[in-house]
Design a protein that fits this description.
Blueprint: H1 2-9, E1 14-16, H2 18-26, E2 32-37, H3 46-60, E3 64-69, H4 91-104, E4 114-118, H5 120-123, H6 127-135, H7 140-144, H8 147-154, H9 161-177, E5 181-185, H10 189-201, E6 209-213, H11 239-247, H12 251-261, H13 266-270, H14 274-290, H15 292-307, E7 316-320, E8 324-326, H16 327-333, H17 340-348, E9 352-354, E10 357-358, E11 364-366, E12 371-375, E13 379-385
Parallel strand pairs: 2-3, 2-5, 3-4, 5-6, 7-13
Antiparallel strand pairs: 1-6, 8-11, 9-10, 9-12, 12-13
Length: 388
């Protein structure tokens, strides 16, 4: 019991309630542990794995994991912590993202011991009558007690009725799945607690335990990890990119990543040199999602590029027939940036190099000999001028 609780409690933000959890664990019952994620983007990132790793801890203790893909609730999008309404996703986007989530989660969880569920199965069948019955179990005052909803309402920022329904639909998932424990980020506390209430309203006496996890900061060390904030490390990132992103984080953030993403003894980490500790963290994370061979290769590439200031061996080529071209146009045409505005910004910040030499904003490229174009720390391309 003590060992199980220690595994479950590590890195958690809050457990409601620990006494109820102890009682359920002591019963010897195989608990149903629920985590729901809406497929609002194509990739899972390390921020998601904070909670998925906790799912794995429950799985290793012999409990039944239910990984719920919110293919129905994704049509609304979780409003938790949002300052504005989300864009409406198409059914095709949701379907595509849902498939990638189902594939990526098994980089952590045991495929044979994991139940994958889709909430469209029961929410699509709820119907108007069922939805009205569910909506009657909460009040506008209860919803407006949420800080994020309250703030948007006071600022006269758009707040849709659909967003009010989202927490209720998530709560109904716990009824449909008969969840014993539900996991979520700290920003999910309202939704998770509502799940307990709704379970009780639908006749489930032994309601779910709520386990909240901290939100992992992105590589900027400020905002939570999110693709929309461009500070995330995706599970599908190339090994070299994943390694490099981890090595770029601050020493302070590194210790938090160790706590939330690994089982390493933090006392050992604190006695290591920060650079050594960060490299060990990058190796562990890359090996976990890409294998040892790719992790070692990523480490060698990082050392070659950053420690020895060399160019990586395996870089792409871009061939062009123009005799000369503005540097900003070349960056866009070669696919190294997405727009001329981004190109100008990066050039002005000194983030573009030609054969290791910084290039200025008025630079006109002449294709006399092949050269290596570098954008930022990790993007390289060999530019070759072809004769017309």
């Amino acid at each position: 019991m003590n060992e199980a609780l220690e595994k479950i409690e590590r890195g958690t933000n809050e457990i409601i309630s620990i006494e109820e959890l102890e009682k359920k664990l002591a019963s010897g019952k195989k608990l149903r542990i629920k985590l729901g994620i809406d497929p609002t983007a194509a990739d899972l990132h390390l921020g998601h794995t904070v909670i998925i790793n906790k799912l794995k801890a429950f799985q290793d203790l012999g409990h039944q994991i239910v990984f719920l893909i919110g293919d129905f609730t994704a049509r609304i999008g979780d409003p938790s912590g949002r300052s504005e309404m989300r864009s409406v996703m198409t059914d095709e986007q949701i379907k595509t993202n849902a498939q990638t989530y189902a594939d990526q989660v098994f980089k952590i969880l045991n495929r044979d011991k994991t139940e994958i569920a889709y909430n469209s199965k029961w929410l699509s069948e709820l119907g108007v009558k069922g939805l009205l019955n569910l909506a009657a179990k909460s009040t506008v005052a209860q919803m407006l007690a949420r800080d994020d909803f309250k703030k948007r309402y006071k600022e006269d920022s758009p707040l849709s009725i659909a967003e009010f329904l989202y927490p209720l639909l998530q709560a109904y998932d716990s009824v449909a799945l008969n969840a014993d424990v539900e996991l979520g980020g700290s920003d999910q506390k309202f939704n998770l607690l509502l799940g307990r209430e709704i379970q009780r309203d639908y006749g489930i006496k032994d309601t779910q335990i709520v386990v909240t996890m901290p939100l992992l900061e992105g590589t900027d060390g400020v905002k939570k990890m999110s693709k929309s904030y461009k500070n995330c490390i995706a599970l599908n990132d190339f090994p070299e990119d994943m390694f490099g992103k981890i090595m770029s984080i601050s020493d302070e953030l590194m210790y938090r990543y160790y706590e939330l993403l690994t089982q390493t003894d933090l006392n050992i980490v604190k006695n290591m040199h920060p650079k050594e500790a960060k490299s060990a963290l990058a190796m562990e994370i890359v090996e976990r999602y890409h294998g040892k061979k790719e992790a070692l290769k990523a480490e060698r590439e990082f050392d070659k590029i950053f420690a020895k200031k060399n160019t990586p061996d395996d870089i792409g080529e871009y061939r062009i027939k123009d005799e000369e071209i503005k540097l900003s146009d070349l960056l866009v045409r070669s696919g190294m940036v997405s727009s001329r505005n981004e190109a100008r910004r990066i050039i002005e910040q000194g983030g573009v190099k030609i054969d290791s030499q910084k290039a200025n904003g008025n630079f006109v490229v002449k294709f006399e000999n092949p050269f290596v174009l570098q954008v930022g720390k990790r993007k390289f391309s060999r530019i070759i001028g072809e004769k017309k």
